[in-house]
Amino acid sequence: MARVYNFSAGPAVLPEEVLKKAASELVEYGTSGMSVMEMSHRSAEYMDLFYKAQDDLRKLMNIPNNYKILFLQGGASLQFSMVPLNLAVKTKKMDYVNTGVWSKKAIAEGKKFGTVNVVATSEDTTFNKIPKLDPARFTKDADYFYLVSNNTIYGTRFVDFPDTGSVPLIADMSSDILSRPVDVSKFGIIFAGAQKNIGPAGITVVIIREDLIGLVDDSIPTMLNYKTHVEGESMFNTPPTYSAYIAGLVFQKLINDGGLNAMQEYNQKKAKILYDYLDESKLFQATVEQEYRSLMNVPFVTGDEDMNARFIKEATTSGFVNLKGHRSVGGMRASIYNAMPLEGVAKLVEFMKGFEKNNA
Ligand SMILES: *Cc1c(COP(=O)(O)O)cnc(C)c1O
Fold first, then answer.
1. Do residues 163 and 221 share a domain?
2. pLDDT in tens, 88-116
3. Residues 251 and 274 reside in one and the same domain
4. Catalytic residues
Protein backbone atom coordinates (compact mmCIF):
# COMPACT_ATOMS: atom_id res chain seq x y z
CA MET A 1 0.00 0.00 0.00
CA ALA A 2 1.36 3.41 -0.96
CA ARG A 3 -0.40 6.47 0.40
CA VAL A 4 0.30 9.69 -1.49
CA TYR A 5 0.51 13.18 -0.03
CA ASN A 6 -2.97 14.43 -0.83
CA PHE A 7 -3.25 18.22 -1.02
CA SER A 8 -6.91 18.13 -2.05
CA ALA A 9 -9.09 21.08 -0.97
CA GLY A 10 -11.92 18.70 -0.12
CA PRO A 11 -12.87 15.98 0.38
CA ALA A 12 -9.43 15.96 1.91
CA VAL A 13 -6.83 13.87 3.66
CA LEU A 14 -7.87 12.13 6.89
CA PRO A 15 -5.53 11.00 9.67
CA GLU A 16 -4.11 7.62 8.73
CA GLU A 17 -4.61 6.32 12.26
CA VAL A 18 -8.32 7.15 12.03
CA LEU A 19 -8.62 5.28 8.74
CA LYS A 20 -6.83 2.28 10.22
CA LYS A 21 -9.01 2.27 13.31
CA ALA A 22 -12.13 2.49 11.13
CA ALA A 23 -10.79 -0.32 8.95
CA SER A 24 -10.27 -2.52 12.00
CA GLU A 25 -13.89 -1.92 13.03
CA LEU A 26 -15.41 -1.90 9.58
CA VAL A 27 -16.94 -5.37 9.62
CA GLU A 28 -17.72 -5.57 13.32
CA TYR A 29 -17.94 -2.63 15.68
CA GLY A 30 -17.05 -3.73 19.20
CA THR A 31 -19.06 -6.83 20.00
CA SER A 32 -22.14 -5.66 18.12
CA GLY A 33 -21.83 -8.27 15.38
CA MET A 34 -22.29 -5.60 12.73
CA SER A 35 -20.72 -2.62 11.04
CA VAL A 36 -21.51 0.91 12.21
CA MET A 37 -23.02 1.37 8.73
CA GLU A 38 -25.57 -1.33 9.45
CA MET A 39 -26.69 -0.05 12.84
CA SER A 40 -30.00 1.55 13.65
CA HIS A 41 -29.36 5.18 14.49
CA ARG A 42 -31.72 4.64 17.43
CA SER A 43 -29.72 1.73 18.88
CA ALA A 44 -28.04 2.33 22.22
CA GLU A 45 -24.66 1.45 20.75
CA TYR A 46 -24.98 3.97 17.93
CA MET A 47 -26.48 6.74 20.04
CA ASP A 48 -23.54 6.37 22.44
CA LEU A 49 -20.97 7.03 19.76
CA PHE A 50 -23.03 9.76 18.06
CA TYR A 51 -23.54 11.83 21.21
CA LYS A 52 -20.00 11.15 22.40
CA ALA A 53 -18.81 12.71 19.14
CA GLN A 54 -20.90 15.82 19.91
CA ASP A 55 -19.61 15.92 23.50
CA ASP A 56 -16.03 15.60 22.28
CA LEU A 57 -16.56 18.45 19.83
CA ARG A 58 -17.95 20.56 22.67
CA LYS A 59 -14.82 19.80 24.71
CA LEU A 60 -12.44 20.46 21.83
CA MET A 61 -13.94 23.82 20.86
CA ASN A 62 -14.90 24.75 24.40
CA ILE A 63 -18.50 25.30 23.29
CA PRO A 64 -20.56 26.99 26.01
CA ASN A 65 -23.70 25.30 27.33
CA ASN A 66 -26.03 27.83 25.73
CA TYR A 67 -25.09 26.50 22.30
CA LYS A 68 -26.55 23.44 20.59
CA ILE A 69 -24.48 21.20 18.35
CA LEU A 70 -26.26 19.77 15.31
CA PHE A 71 -25.06 17.17 12.83
CA LEU A 72 -27.04 17.86 9.67
CA GLN A 73 -26.97 17.01 5.98
CA GLY A 74 -27.07 19.21 2.89
CA GLY A 75 -23.48 20.41 3.14
CA ALA A 76 -22.27 23.87 4.05
CA SER A 77 -24.18 25.04 0.98
CA LEU A 78 -27.56 24.30 2.55
CA GLN A 79 -26.57 26.60 5.43
CA PHE A 80 -26.32 29.46 2.91
CA SER A 81 -30.13 29.17 2.76
CA MET A 82 -30.93 27.92 6.25
CA VAL A 83 -29.20 30.85 7.92
CA PRO A 84 -31.33 33.56 6.25
CA LEU A 85 -34.47 31.39 6.27
CA ASN A 86 -34.23 30.98 10.04
CA LEU A 87 -32.66 34.30 11.07
CA ALA A 88 -33.69 37.01 8.58
CA VAL A 89 -37.06 37.46 10.23
CA LYS A 90 -37.09 40.80 12.09
CA THR A 91 -35.67 43.58 9.89
CA LYS A 92 -34.71 41.22 7.05
CA LYS A 93 -31.46 43.18 6.79
CA MET A 94 -28.23 41.19 6.61
CA ASP A 95 -24.57 42.21 6.55
CA TYR A 96 -22.06 40.11 4.59
CA VAL A 97 -18.32 40.36 3.98
CA ASN A 98 -17.44 39.33 0.44
CA THR A 99 -14.17 37.41 0.46
CA GLY A 100 -14.67 35.09 -2.50
CA VAL A 101 -16.68 32.33 -4.09
CA TRP A 102 -18.19 30.89 -0.92
CA SER A 103 -19.31 34.25 0.44
CA LYS A 104 -20.76 35.21 -2.96
CA LYS A 105 -22.85 32.05 -3.01
CA ALA A 106 -24.10 32.81 0.50
CA ILE A 107 -24.84 36.44 -0.48
CA ALA A 108 -26.89 35.25 -3.46
CA GLU A 109 -28.99 33.09 -1.14
CA GLY A 110 -29.33 35.86 1.46
CA LYS A 111 -30.75 38.19 -1.20
CA LYS A 112 -33.70 35.84 -1.61
CA PHE A 113 -34.77 36.63 1.94
CA GLY A 114 -34.29 40.39 2.31
CA THR A 115 -31.79 43.22 1.97
CA VAL A 116 -28.14 42.30 1.82
CA ASN A 117 -25.54 44.93 2.68
CA VAL A 118 -22.04 43.93 1.57
CA VAL A 119 -20.03 45.76 4.22
CA ALA A 120 -16.65 45.10 2.58
CA THR A 121 -15.19 43.21 -0.35
CA SER A 122 -11.74 42.32 -1.68
CA GLU A 123 -13.02 41.45 -5.14
CA ASP A 124 -11.09 44.37 -6.72
CA THR A 125 -7.81 42.61 -5.83
CA THR A 126 -9.01 39.11 -6.77
CA PHE A 127 -9.68 38.31 -3.11
CA ASN A 128 -5.97 38.23 -2.20
CA LYS A 129 -6.67 39.70 1.25
CA ILE A 130 -9.39 40.16 3.85
CA PRO A 131 -10.82 43.66 3.34
CA LYS A 132 -10.59 46.15 6.21
CA LEU A 133 -13.88 46.36 8.05
CA ASP A 134 -15.35 49.75 8.97
CA PRO A 135 -17.88 49.33 11.79
CA ALA A 136 -19.56 52.55 10.62
CA ARG A 137 -20.77 50.54 7.62
CA PHE A 138 -22.33 47.77 9.72
CA THR A 139 -26.14 47.76 9.82
CA LYS A 140 -27.10 48.46 13.44
CA ASP A 141 -30.36 46.53 13.31
CA ALA A 142 -29.26 43.72 10.98
CA ASP A 143 -30.66 40.27 11.69
CA TYR A 144 -27.11 38.94 11.43
CA PHE A 145 -23.57 39.59 10.20
CA TYR A 146 -22.01 36.89 8.00
CA LEU A 147 -18.44 36.01 7.09
CA VAL A 148 -16.33 33.08 5.85
CA SER A 149 -13.51 32.53 8.35
CA ASN A 150 -11.16 30.86 5.86
CA ASN A 151 -11.43 31.22 2.11
CA THR A 152 -10.64 27.81 0.73
CA ILE A 153 -10.21 28.92 -2.87
CA TYR A 154 -8.21 32.15 -2.43
CA GLY A 155 -6.25 31.12 0.66
CA THR A 156 -7.12 34.02 2.95
CA ARG A 157 -8.35 33.96 6.53
CA PHE A 158 -9.70 36.24 9.19
CA VAL A 159 -7.02 36.48 11.86
CA ASP A 160 -9.41 38.35 14.20
CA PHE A 161 -13.17 38.49 14.06
CA PRO A 162 -15.16 41.72 14.11
CA ASP A 163 -17.16 42.84 17.13
CA THR A 164 -20.74 43.01 15.88
CA GLY A 165 -22.31 43.95 19.22
CA SER A 166 -25.81 42.57 19.59
CA VAL A 167 -25.97 41.51 15.93
CA PRO A 168 -25.35 37.74 15.77
CA LEU A 169 -22.09 36.88 14.02
CA ILE A 170 -22.42 33.92 11.62
CA ALA A 171 -19.31 32.14 10.36
CA ASP A 172 -18.82 29.57 7.63
CA MET A 173 -15.82 27.73 9.09
CA SER A 174 -15.90 24.83 6.63
CA SER A 175 -12.21 24.95 5.82
CA ASP A 176 -10.61 25.96 9.11
CA ILE A 177 -12.79 24.63 11.91
CA LEU A 178 -10.62 22.75 14.44
CA SER A 179 -7.42 24.26 12.99
CA ARG A 180 -7.17 26.86 15.75
CA PRO A 181 -9.02 27.77 18.94
CA VAL A 182 -11.89 30.25 18.48
CA ASP A 183 -14.01 31.96 21.11
CA VAL A 184 -17.35 30.37 20.27
CA SER A 185 -19.20 32.83 22.54
CA LYS A 186 -18.52 35.58 19.97
CA PHE A 187 -20.66 33.81 17.40
CA GLY A 188 -24.36 33.26 16.84
CA ILE A 189 -23.84 30.34 14.48
CA ILE A 190 -20.73 28.51 13.34
CA PHE A 191 -21.20 25.94 10.60
CA ALA A 192 -18.88 23.69 8.62
CA GLY A 193 -19.14 20.98 6.02
CA ALA A 194 -17.11 18.04 7.30
CA GLN A 195 -15.03 17.14 4.29
CA LYS A 196 -12.17 19.59 4.87
CA ASN A 197 -11.12 19.32 8.47
CA ILE A 198 -13.59 17.03 10.23
CA GLY A 199 -14.29 13.81 8.37
CA PRO A 200 -15.94 12.38 5.28
CA ALA A 201 -18.50 14.36 3.26
CA GLY A 202 -22.11 13.95 4.26
CA ILE A 203 -22.20 15.66 7.60
CA THR A 204 -22.48 19.37 8.36
CA VAL A 205 -21.71 20.64 11.84
CA VAL A 206 -23.89 23.53 13.03
CA ILE A 207 -23.16 25.21 16.36
CA ILE A 208 -26.05 27.51 17.21
CA ARG A 209 -26.71 29.81 20.16
CA GLU A 210 -29.99 28.92 21.84
CA ASP A 211 -31.66 32.31 21.46
CA LEU A 212 -31.44 31.98 17.65
CA ILE A 213 -33.54 28.82 17.60
CA GLY A 214 -37.23 29.19 16.78
CA LEU A 215 -37.18 32.85 15.66
CA VAL A 216 -38.92 31.92 12.43
CA ASP A 217 -42.48 30.61 12.53
CA ASP A 218 -43.17 26.97 11.87
CA SER A 219 -44.58 27.52 8.37
CA ILE A 220 -41.12 26.97 6.85
CA PRO A 221 -40.25 23.45 5.67
CA THR A 222 -39.75 21.22 8.69
CA MET A 223 -36.35 19.90 7.61
CA LEU A 224 -35.02 23.45 7.10
CA ASN A 225 -35.97 24.64 10.58
CA TYR A 226 -33.13 24.54 13.11
CA LYS A 227 -35.74 23.97 15.81
CA THR A 228 -36.67 20.63 14.25
CA HIS A 229 -33.11 19.37 14.58
CA VAL A 230 -32.61 20.79 18.05
CA GLU A 231 -35.78 19.10 19.29
CA GLY A 232 -34.88 15.91 17.44
CA GLU A 233 -31.33 16.05 18.85
CA SER A 234 -29.93 15.72 15.30
CA MET A 235 -32.02 12.57 14.83
CA PHE A 236 -35.28 13.98 13.50
CA ASN A 237 -34.47 11.78 10.56
CA THR A 238 -31.60 9.39 9.87
CA PRO A 239 -28.32 11.27 10.31
CA PRO A 240 -25.25 10.46 8.18
CA THR A 241 -24.35 7.70 10.59
CA TYR A 242 -21.01 6.54 9.25
CA SER A 243 -19.69 10.07 8.63
CA ALA A 244 -20.56 10.98 12.21
CA TYR A 245 -18.67 7.92 13.44
CA ILE A 246 -15.51 8.91 11.54
CA ALA A 247 -15.87 12.52 12.70
CA GLY A 248 -16.01 11.16 16.25
CA LEU A 249 -12.73 9.29 15.72
CA VAL A 250 -11.15 12.51 14.43
CA PHE A 251 -12.37 14.49 17.47
CA GLN A 252 -10.98 11.81 19.78
CA LYS A 253 -7.61 11.96 18.03
CA LEU A 254 -7.47 15.76 18.32
CA ILE A 255 -8.22 15.55 22.03
CA ASN A 256 -5.48 12.93 22.46
CA ASP A 257 -3.05 15.12 20.51
CA GLY A 258 -3.50 18.06 22.88
CA GLY A 259 -6.51 19.93 21.51
CA LEU A 260 -6.78 23.00 19.34
CA ASN A 261 -3.89 24.99 20.83
CA ALA A 262 -1.56 22.17 19.90
CA MET A 263 -3.22 21.91 16.50
CA GLN A 264 -2.77 25.62 15.85
CA GLU A 265 0.91 25.43 16.75
CA TYR A 266 1.39 22.46 14.43
CA ASN A 267 -0.50 24.18 11.60
CA GLN A 268 1.55 27.37 11.98
CA LYS A 269 4.76 25.38 11.83
CA LYS A 270 3.58 23.47 8.77
CA ALA A 271 2.38 26.52 6.84
CA LYS A 272 5.57 28.45 7.65
CA ILE A 273 7.69 25.85 5.88
CA LEU A 274 5.76 26.40 2.67
CA TYR A 275 5.32 30.19 2.90
CA ASP A 276 8.98 30.75 3.80
CA TYR A 277 10.02 28.87 0.70
CA LEU A 278 7.48 30.67 -1.52
CA ASP A 279 8.82 34.02 -0.26
CA GLU A 280 12.42 33.15 -1.15
CA SER A 281 11.74 31.22 -4.38
CA LYS A 282 12.44 32.87 -7.73
CA LEU A 283 10.07 30.51 -9.53
CA PHE A 284 7.03 30.23 -7.24
CA GLN A 285 5.13 33.05 -5.55
CA ALA A 286 2.38 33.06 -2.96
CA THR A 287 -0.65 35.06 -4.11
CA VAL A 288 -1.99 36.30 -0.77
CA GLU A 289 -0.91 39.33 1.30
CA GLN A 290 1.19 38.13 4.21
CA GLU A 291 -1.14 39.28 7.00
CA TYR A 292 -4.13 37.29 5.75
CA ARG A 293 -2.51 34.06 4.66
CA SER A 294 -4.47 30.92 5.40
CA LEU A 295 -2.85 28.13 7.37
CA MET A 296 -5.06 25.64 5.52
CA ASN A 297 -5.04 26.54 1.83
CA VAL A 298 -1.89 27.88 0.18
CA PRO A 299 -2.31 29.11 -3.40
CA PHE A 300 0.79 29.84 -5.44
CA VAL A 301 1.78 30.56 -9.04
CA THR A 302 4.78 30.66 -11.35
CA GLY A 303 3.33 33.24 -13.73
CA ASP A 304 3.60 30.78 -16.62
CA GLU A 305 0.72 28.43 -17.43
CA ASP A 306 2.93 25.83 -19.13
CA MET A 307 5.30 25.80 -16.17
CA ASN A 308 2.33 25.38 -13.79
CA ALA A 309 1.05 22.43 -15.80
CA ARG A 310 4.47 20.80 -15.91
CA PHE A 311 4.92 21.27 -12.17
CA ILE A 312 1.54 19.74 -11.37
CA LYS A 313 2.26 16.79 -13.65
CA GLU A 314 5.71 16.07 -12.20
CA ALA A 315 4.48 16.54 -8.64
CA THR A 316 1.68 14.06 -9.23
CA THR A 317 4.13 11.49 -10.57
CA SER A 318 6.21 11.97 -7.44
CA GLY A 319 3.27 11.35 -5.09
CA PHE A 320 2.15 14.95 -4.35
CA VAL A 321 -1.38 15.00 -5.67
CA ASN A 322 -4.27 17.44 -6.11
CA LEU A 323 -2.08 20.54 -6.31
CA LYS A 324 -4.02 22.13 -9.15
CA GLY A 325 -5.57 25.46 -8.17
CA HIS A 326 -9.34 25.97 -8.21
CA ARG A 327 -10.70 26.30 -11.72
CA SER A 328 -11.66 29.92 -11.01
CA VAL A 329 -8.11 31.06 -10.12
CA GLY A 330 -5.67 28.68 -11.85
CA GLY A 331 -2.11 28.14 -10.65
CA MET A 332 -1.54 25.78 -7.75
CA ARG A 333 -3.01 25.32 -4.30
CA ALA A 334 -1.71 23.12 -1.52
CA SER A 335 -4.40 22.40 1.04
CA ILE A 336 -2.65 21.47 4.25
CA TYR A 337 -5.47 20.69 6.65
CA ASN A 338 -4.99 19.28 10.15
CA ALA A 339 -4.46 15.76 8.82
CA MET A 340 -1.63 16.70 6.45
CA PRO A 341 1.52 15.68 8.29
CA LEU A 342 4.36 18.19 8.61
CA GLU A 343 6.52 15.68 6.79
CA GLY A 344 4.23 15.97 3.75
CA VAL A 345 4.74 19.74 3.55
CA ALA A 346 8.49 19.46 4.12
CA LYS A 347 8.77 16.86 1.36
CA LEU A 348 6.67 18.98 -0.99
CA VAL A 349 9.00 21.93 -0.43
CA GLU A 350 12.02 19.69 -1.11
CA PHE A 351 10.36 18.62 -4.33
CA MET A 352 9.61 22.24 -5.29
CA LYS A 353 13.22 23.24 -4.66
CA GLY A 354 14.39 20.46 -6.96
CA PHE A 355 11.89 21.51 -9.61
CA GLU A 356 13.03 25.13 -9.35
CA LYS A 357 16.68 24.11 -9.75
CA ASN A 358 15.90 21.99 -12.79
CA ASN A 359 13.98 24.83 -14.38
CA ALA A 360 16.30 27.72 -13.57
C1 LIG B 1 -16.19 23.54 0.65
C2 LIG B 1 -16.81 24.77 1.18
C3 LIG B 1 -18.20 24.99 1.11
C4 LIG B 1 -19.14 24.04 0.40
O5 LIG B 1 -19.33 22.92 1.13
P6 LIG B 1 -20.41 21.81 0.69
O7 LIG B 1 -20.39 20.90 1.87
O8 LIG B 1 -19.89 21.20 -0.56
O9 LIG B 1 -21.71 22.49 0.49
C10 LIG B 1 -18.70 26.14 1.68
N11 LIG B 1 -17.89 27.03 2.30
C12 LIG B 1 -16.56 26.85 2.37
C13 LIG B 1 -15.73 27.86 3.09
C14 LIG B 1 -15.99 25.71 1.82
O15 LIG B 1 -14.65 25.54 1.91
1. yes
2. 999 999 999 999 999 999 999 999 999 99
3. no
4. 102, 172, 196
Ligand 1 binding pocket includes 102 (Cβ within 6 Å)? yes
Print the domain residue range for 325. Answer: 5-15+258-358
Quote the CA–CA distance of 13 and 7 in Å, as a whole number: 7
Q: Where are the alpha helices (DSSP H) in 143-258?
A: 226-231, 241-256
Backbone angles phi, psi at 318, to 5 degrees: -90, 5
- Residues 10, 74, single domain; the answer is no
Cα(102) to ligand 1 centroid in Å equals 7
Domain count, the chain: 2
pLDDT digit string (tens) for 157-201?
A: 999 999 999 999 999 999 999 999 999 999 999 999 999 999 999
pLDDT, tens digit (0-9, with 9 covering 90-100), for 343-359: 999 999 999 999 999 99
Determine if ligand 1 sits within 6 Å of the CB of residue 148. Answer: yes
Query: In this predicted model, what pLDDT tens digit does every residue of 64-87 receive, in sequence order?
Result: 999 999 999 999 999 999 999 999
- If asked whether residues 71 and 177 sit together in one domain, one would say yes
Q: How far, in Å, is the centroid of ligand 1 from the Cα of 189?
A: 16
Do 265 and 132 share a structural domain?
no
